[in-house]
């Protein structure tokens, strides 16, 4: 049975930590690079007490290698000022990580890299997919991407001070922990504390990009040239969601060779922290499988 190991990479002098699961037998169909959202860590994708909700374990059981990375500015790199960069700077570092993965993984690298990304990590994944260096990606699955924020959250974000390295927690209505979850019974209530390995401070550099995302994302989406699976949560209350937002995302992704739009039942914004996480992850892996080159 596959297991999850803690790993560490050095890219351009920055130490990136993460969680890695490889398939049994060594060879992999491909590699999934999983990017967590703002205020989280790699453990968003793999909680020790919830193996059924683990994307790394599920991916490995299906023949894929899954690397859930602590994005630059999180995990081991949180104390390194060079890592607390905006999303374009993070993309550069992650492309550097992709350059070293084939040698590190060997046969466990597979046919290429597929991105699975949540919220702020989804914004980052889409920027990577719009870059020239992103043309070689197999594709991506993004969830919780804020094409537009709820009015309450947009107002709260506009008031957050940006004169420090990490932003303070938002306390305004519509920004509390419960905002990011579905109704009671759809998740473990202990997760509302976001303590332990999941929660982390948000670097200011990426917060500014996320705050301005409704203005910048439409132009990014028009440059994406890889397949995209886009998910909104049934009970999304952090961002504006629903059929109209899905339709707009599909229209803006007009240059992507394939776009699949999906509403995930039974979850709020933090899709992978709900009891329905396995159902969502199975859809992500199915889309990744469909992005493999023919004959793989």
Automatic annotation (TrEMBL):
Keywords: Hydrolase. It comes from the Bacteria. Transmembrane segments: none annotated. The keyword Hydrolase applies. The keyword Electron transport does not apply. One of its GO terms (molecular function) is hydrolase activity. InterPro entries: AB_hydrolase_1, AB_hydrolase_fold, AB_hydrolase_sf. Residues 32-275 form the AB hydrolase-1 domain. This is Alpha/beta hydrolase.
């Amino acid at each position: 049975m596959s297991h999850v190991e803690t790993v560490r990479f050095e890219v351009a002098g920055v130490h990136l930590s993460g969680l890695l699961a490889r398939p049994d037998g060594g060879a992999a169909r491909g590699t999934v690079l999983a990017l967590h959202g703002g205020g989280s860590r790699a453990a968003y994708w793999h909680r020790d007490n919830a193996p059924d909700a683990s994307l790394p374990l599920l991916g490995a059981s299906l023949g894929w290698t899954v690397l859930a990375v602590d994005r630059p500015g999180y995990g081991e790199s949180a104390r390194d000022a060079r890592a607390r960069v905006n999303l374009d700077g993070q993309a550069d570092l992650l492309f550097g990580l992709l350059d070293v993965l084939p040698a590190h993984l060997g046969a466990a690298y597979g046919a290429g890299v597929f991105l699975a990304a949540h919220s702020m990590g989804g914004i980052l994944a889409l920027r990577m997919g719009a870059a020239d260096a992103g043309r070689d990606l197999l594709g991506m699955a993004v969830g919780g991407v804020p094409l537009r924020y709820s009015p309450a959250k947009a107002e709260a974000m506009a008031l957050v001070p940006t004169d420090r390295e990490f932003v303070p927690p938002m306390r305004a209505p519509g920004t509390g922990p419960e905002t990011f979850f579905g109704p009671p019974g759809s998740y473990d209530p202990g997760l509302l504390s976001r303590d332990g390995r999941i929660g982390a401070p948000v670097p200011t550099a990426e917060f500014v990009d996320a705050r301005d995302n409704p203005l910048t994302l439409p132009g990014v989406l028009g440059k994406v040239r890889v397949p995209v699976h886009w998910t909104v949560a049934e009970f999304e209350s952090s961002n504006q969601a629903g059929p109209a937002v899905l339709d707009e995302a599909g229209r803006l992704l007009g240059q992507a060779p394939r776009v699949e739009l999906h509403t995930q039942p039974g979850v709020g914004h933090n899709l992978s922290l709900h009891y329905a996480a396995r159902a969502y992850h199975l859809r992500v892996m199915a889309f990744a499988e469909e992005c493999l080159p023919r004959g793989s």
